[in-house]
Design brief:
Layout: E1 2-4, E2 11-13, E3 22-29, H1 32-40, H2 53-64, E4 75-83, H3 84-90, E5 97-101, E6 121-122, E7 130-131, H4 139-162, H5 167-170, E8 179-187, H6 188-198, H7 205-218, H8 223-233
Helix pairs in contact: 1-2, 2-8, 6-7
The protein binds flavin-adenine dinucleotide.
Flavin-adenine dinucleotide binds near residues 92, 94, 95 and 193.
Length: about 240
């Protein structure tokens, strides 16, 4: 079962609370039944009947026992507009994920920079993680420093272009907060694996927000699979 959604009518979520960072559902392929059928084909048991309770139990069994291949026939394509530092984490997911990204060699990059609505502090327990401001961070000063750094960097990019420097070199002065945009297609196995790692308190906070938006858009497409997956993660 294929469902192709035109970009203009795509469902879009804005995980970072600005009107730039976004996850749009572009298309999906397959449904919960496809997972059941691709598992049951091994004994000739695939069928056209609506999803049953027995089918749902099979999905849960497949997830619990790590029989992953039946989940690979289903695909979800997102258009993701995210800061480069988030994209650098998304692109680490190598298996079952396809990506095409805007090229800063082809086009002049737009002035689109992420500015955190709230700055966080370094976590003490996890050297990679962050914690919410406990009121001791000077939010205004942090915002000012961030904006100044952005201004210098983007102005330098434009000046280099004006000097006649090629786009592929000029972009080298741009910061990690620059928004990039890509199409990402995950199969459902790789999507669930991604969500386990990135919708997790140990992951980069902004990446968690993107992961949650992706889950929110994908869950209604594969409701039985997500139900079983969430139950397993809750230990039920
Ligand atoms: C909280 C967090 C912190 C992180 N910190 C860092 C960091 O500091 N530095 C850093 O470099 N990365 C870091 N990463 C990235 C991490 O190491 C993985 O590259 C990333 O999460 C992708 O996971 P993956 O390899 O399981 O996914 P995929 O690349 O999609 O692979 C899926 C699965 O396929 C199998 N697989 C894939 N490739 C191979 C292979 N070559 N050989 C054998 N089996 C393979 C594995 O079972 C793997 O789990 C971090 C990730 C998280 C979630």
């Amino acid at each position: 079962m294929t469902n192709v959604v035109a970009l203009s009518s795509a469902q879009v979520l804005y995980p970072l609370g600005d009107d730039i960072g976004s996850v749009a559902l572009i298309q999906h392929v397959g449904d919960d039944k496809m997972i059941v059928n691709s598992a049951r084909v091994s004994f000739g048991g695939d069928n056209d009947a609506p999803l049953t309770e027995r089918d749902e139990k099979l999905i849960k069994y497949l997830l619990r026992e790590h029989h992953g291949s039946p989940f690979e026939h289903n695909l979800v394509t997102f258009k993701i507009v995210c800061p480069i530092f988030v994209d650098r984490q998304l692109v680490r997911h190598r298996v079952g994920v396809s990506k095409n990204e805007i090229s800063g060699r082809y086009v002049e990059l737009k002035e689109r920079g992420y500015i955190p609505l709230e700055f966080r502090k370094q976590a003490k327990s996890n050297r990679q993680a962050s914690v919410a401001d406990d009121g001791t961070l000077d939010q205004e000063a942090a915002s000012r420093v961030w904006s100044e750094a952005w201004r210098v960097a983007f102005d330098s990019y434009e000046k280099l272009l004006a000097l006649g420097v090629t786009r592929e070199q000029a972009r080298g002065v741009l910061p990690l907060a620059l928004y990039t945009e890509s199409y990402y297609t995950f199969n459902v196995r790789s999507l669930l694996h991604f969500l386990e790692l990135r919708d997790h308190p140990g992951a980069q906070f902004e990446t968690q927000l993107f992961a949650r938006a992706m889950a929110e858009l994908a869950e209604p497409l594969f409701p039985a699979t997500f139900r079983a997956w969430r139950d397993l993660h809750r230990g039920e």
